[in-house]
Write the structure tokens for this entry.
Amino acid sequence: MGPAQETRAPEVTLDEIVALCKRRGFIFPSSEIYGGIGSTYDYGHYGVLLRNNVKGEWWRAIIGERDDIVALDSAILQHPRVWEASGHLEGFTDPLVDCRTCGLRFRADNLEDAQCGRKPSMHPGEFKECDLTDAREFNLMFETHVGPVKDTASTAYLRPETAQGIFINFKNVLQFARKRPPFGIAQIGKSFRNEITTGNFIFRTREFEQMEMEYFVPPAEAPKWHSYWMDERMRWYTDLGIRDDNLKLRPHGADELSHYSSATSDVEYLFPMGWLELEGIANRGDFDLTQHAKFSGEKLEYFDPEQSEAYVPHVIEPAAGVDRAMLAFMVDAYDTEEVEGRKRTLLRLHPRLAPVKAAVLPLVSKEGMPERAREIYQEVRARVPAEYDEGGSIGKRYRRQDEIGTPWGITVDGRTMEDGTVTLRDRDTLEQERVPAEELGDRLAAKLAEPWRSPKLG
Ligand code: ATP
């Protein structure tokens, strides 16, 4: 899918996000000392913390705040028959064309988004020297071999989605979770796709993480639950600070629908590259359970004791990407402003997403301030994730915290030594107030629990 037309100028470029991620240790290109391996990234300290918070918020919304969904963590390597039954072996393909002139490969359905290898201002096929092959279907699954013998009998695949691990455990979960439709099974984990074209930083990579939930419902209720999950998932993003204007639901056209789906809507976000998919919400019908029942010989049904009959539940699936969500949260939060003649760059992240909630900073490294600040830091970190920093000027330390999105800064100064109060600085308003040090823990924990909206909304 190519980026849709958008007339609004992006507030931030992808290059600015990439630079901030590198500068502040969120994300590094993988295998950099060996020259890198295309479209593969390693997450550094703040990247890991932010990612964990994105996943934590998903678990909170899907499991923590509800009683009808249970968690699962299935294996990445599964029986090869899983992928026969799911249709991935045959149908999980993209059309591929090669250029005999430049040797590059392109997705035949995405030529308008690709650059010609010889003349980058043109699309593949437009330059007079282009010599494209016919399109052929290319399977996106990574093949590997299980065990010491590398033959066809040992072929296995790295999972291209987490969903199938859920379907093949339907019976186990039904037995142990004591649930009845409507109920869901959720999982977060790595998936792998040998994408023909990658790019746009962590938007499309070959190794990525998904947050998927399969919600099993009585067949007649499927449309109702599909629309319910569309609302819920849109709300998740906006509750975490994504601005309404940058988010939309786009129903798939009949020609776009996957083989298993009777209706899908994408949650799209206005990335710097245009409107692109963040999450897909599909009505998968009974396709998956029926296929696995057929291929495995196991009955994958729910016996309804009230009706005294068994049926195959239909499935509603919200399927989101951790990496794409993280990118969207960073893009939406990125801001620059001028304060007293100096440019300030900051991430106005929802406090619950921010990698560090509070930074404790002694004003200067003398007069007992570092010692007192360290004591306060120990108290604060017991309540909210915090960081202590005494290196460099106070301005420099604040700039660093602004760029990693820390919502609250605590400065220990001369007055702290006299009356026990500290300054509490707000990342977004830059307001500072004096607070007794012993109240900090309660104050910060309460602030973290408050509803929050992006200050960019005014
Ligand atoms: P696309 O059309 O962008 O290839 P898709 O429709 O194939 O995505 P799904 O199979 O619906 O994606 O997967 C669910 C979610 O997983 C996507 O919405 C996206 O957030 C994430 N995802 C899928 N492929 C990738 C990838 N290669 N890199 C990063 N995230 C991905």
Observations:
- The chain has a mean pLDDT of 94.
